[in-house]
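User: Can you write out an input/output pair for a complex, sequences first and structure second?

Assistant: Here is one pair. Inputs:
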Amino acid sequence: GQSLEQPSEVTAVEGAIVQINCTYQTSGFYGLSWYQQHDGGAPTFLSYNALDGLEETGRFSSFLSRSDSYGYLLLQELQMKDSASYFCAPGRGDDKIIFGKGTRLHILP
Amino acid sequence: NAGVTQTPKFQVLKTGQSMTLQCAQDMNHNSMYWYRQDPGMGLRLIYYSASEGTTDKGEVPNGYNVSRLNKREFSLRLESAAPSQTSVYFCASTLQGGPSGANVLTFGAGSRLTVL
């Protein structure tokens, strides 16, 4: 089976840093992906961690710890346009891609 | 490139009617997926197809059927629609086994279905 846990909502201030956590239990795990979805839109790929550690892509970074079955997405210098839902999705060897319920990020001016 | 194209974008059905959602991708991806999204429920996998000629059940397959017509196309059929199937449906595709190993899913724009 598989289980994924993310906080349902996170609120932060414009210009600040926010971390969105994801814990997972899945068989055949080989990596963790993150997606962003704005209201009314389709999800879009943000980042991927195959190995333990931090991957940085501009203002966004993602971290993975395989031993803890844990990852997080770090968003820096928050902008109002970052208000969206964020989903983690473990990669599996059987191609079955399941998403967490997502974290809704609210940004205050 | 068009990416992933879903049709129709909007549809209203009456309970018991049938319909097919169409999905096509032009990226030569091998794996294709159908998800539904309800408020507060995230994305739930209905069915997926890891390669042409194969389909597998996801988390919520009941009430749906799929067809992987060829490498490009993956359709989702509701044989007898129910109000509980009111949702936004997303098709997605990816190239499994790519060089980075990442599941980089490309999503269609979504199909909003209302069942009365």
